[in-house]
Amino acid sequence: xxxxxxxxxxxxxxxxxxxxxxxxxxxxxxxxxxxxxxxxxxxxxxxxxxxxxxxxxxxxxxxxxxxxxxxxxxxxxxxxxxxxxxxxxxxxxxxxxxxxxxxxxxxxxxxxxxxxxxxxxxxxxxxxxxxxxxxxxxxxxxxxxxxxxxxxxxxxxxxxxxxxxxxxxxxxxxxxxxxxxxxxxxxxxxxxxxxxxxxxxxxxxxxxxxxxxxxxxxxxxxxxxxxxxxxxxxxxxxxxxxxxxxxxxxxxxxxxxxxxxxxxxxxxxxxxxxxxxxxxxxxxxxxxxxxx
Length: 292
Fold this sequence. Notes:
By secondary structure, this protein is α/β, with parallel strands linked by helices. Helices cover 49% and strands 12% of the residues. It has helices spanning 2-5, 12-17, 19-26, 33-53, 65-79, 116-124, 128-138, 143-155, 161-175, 177-189, 200-206, 217-222, 226-232, 240-248, and strands spanning 57-61, 84-88, 212-215, 224-225, 252-254, 257-258, 265-266, 276-281, 285-291. The strands form 3 sheets. A 5-stranded mixed β-sheet has the order 3-9-8-5-6. A two-stranded parallel sheet has the order 1-2. A hairpin with a 2-residue loop joins strand 5 and strand 6.
């Protein structure tokens, strides 16, 4: 019934002639029948909103121009009314990939879907080719300040000052000053800052992709020798002997602080949060110890 009542108003030549369709057909990936038919469904959405709510304007990204104009044409044919479309340039990275929920690794404003720390890290990792454009799009910084950051990026790209300002500004705008400060501190932790006085949730967010082990909290109440503790951290140390050698070579850190004695006793006072210790081997190999 849908194809009979709505599909008859679409001409194949017009659908094929749309720039977005031609571009996809000419690409290596091609275009599926489902994608090709989507313009009919979006056009019908516009018609339904026009009939039910009087909607006359549809706004979208520039890649939606063909779908939006299909809806404008459908409204004119069936209702004899004028409708309009407005599109905006897509925000893309240096590889041409768009920002959007359909893309892998999408960033959401909802903290339950993307934590402030994850948003901060995503923006901090912006490449030098894109960061100045993102500052102009996503922040309210004066253009003069952005121009200074552009000069700084050209002169000292390794400092990543523009990326830091972008990450801090956007997280502050979306989640508030406290969240931005916490995300910035979390970022510094990954570069070796001492880990102390954090919450379990904050540590989980920072180290969400590292292995973890559990330890009965009673072991901390009684005190546990550092070698015995490290031997439990199987992802990092194969045995007590391996742990002892790593410690003697200066490659063991507890809460990002170097451990230099094999006789040290670890207690609940060493917890970085309510229930967690962070063990590091070398520069980047982490494991969480959860005292339960």
